[in-house]
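Predict the 3D structure for this chain.
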Amino acid sequence: MPAGHAILVVRFSSLGDVILTTPLLRTIRRAHPDADVTFVTKRAYAEVLTDSPYVTRLVTLEPGESVRALAARLRAPFAWRLDLHGSLRSYALRMLLGGRWGSYPKRRRLRRRLISHRAPAGTALPHVAERYFRAARGLGVTPDGGPPEVHVSSAAAARAAEFAPRGAVVLAPGSRQATKRWPPERWHALAQRLLAKGYGVIGLGSAGEERLLDTPGIVPAFGLPLGVAAGVLAAARAVVANDSGLMHLATAVGTPVVALFGPTVRALGSGPYCAPSTVVERPLACRPCSPYGGPVCPLGHHRCMIEIAADEVETAVLAA
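Done. Predicted structure below.
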């Protein structure tokens, strides 16, 4: 690709998936330092890329905005277009913009085999961060073995420092899907154990997730802008999180992660990527039951999360 040409990258959501595009963005910038890279995502997730040195222009899909209106704002002579989402919305954008596009395989058939336990032992999907590179194979880039990257602005770091003690343990009890959440009583027990040992403890998550970790003595940090949340994570000693966007955000700011996996498994290709991490999970025959989790356990027992004990997670945190 000639120097100075423009590249369009599309990944609308969600938080973790947007963060996992950053290894690809990094290698594109290194291979094509003069390229103009435009990244398109939803407004809710744009803040994690606001200070990225790998993105030239950040375009946000606004709430309620149509794909046609977005396409009208994107009219430009892009030399390469990468669809990292593979949804009906991204396909519609491709049709409206036209031109040559790169995309990546979602491997739905192998994912179904993994979930239904018919895959051979040891079978696993490549990590989604590496599958994204398939969309950019014409750009001559390959994974560099580095983790995701989110750059915390000085303003976000300063705001985080106003209330979040450096060196604390961050507990992130939320996840979009209920079956991926460790029970509130386990989070409460873990927080109490850490507080008793003299650690500062911060509860982090979206607005409304305070109910999942309402423990006296912790610093509540729920409902923060993503940039400030990244600052809190970057200053932490360690982070405990469910399989969620905040798990990936923690890896992207370089903080060791203790990840709690229940209905999902790393073999599906979305665990912590190339970063210091410990995954705590139970080897149950019913796992995985879903690639994304769900509202209720299909078998009604939720053992995959209930059987993870607070003392086991505490041990992983102290070793991080």
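The chain has a mean pLDDT of 94.
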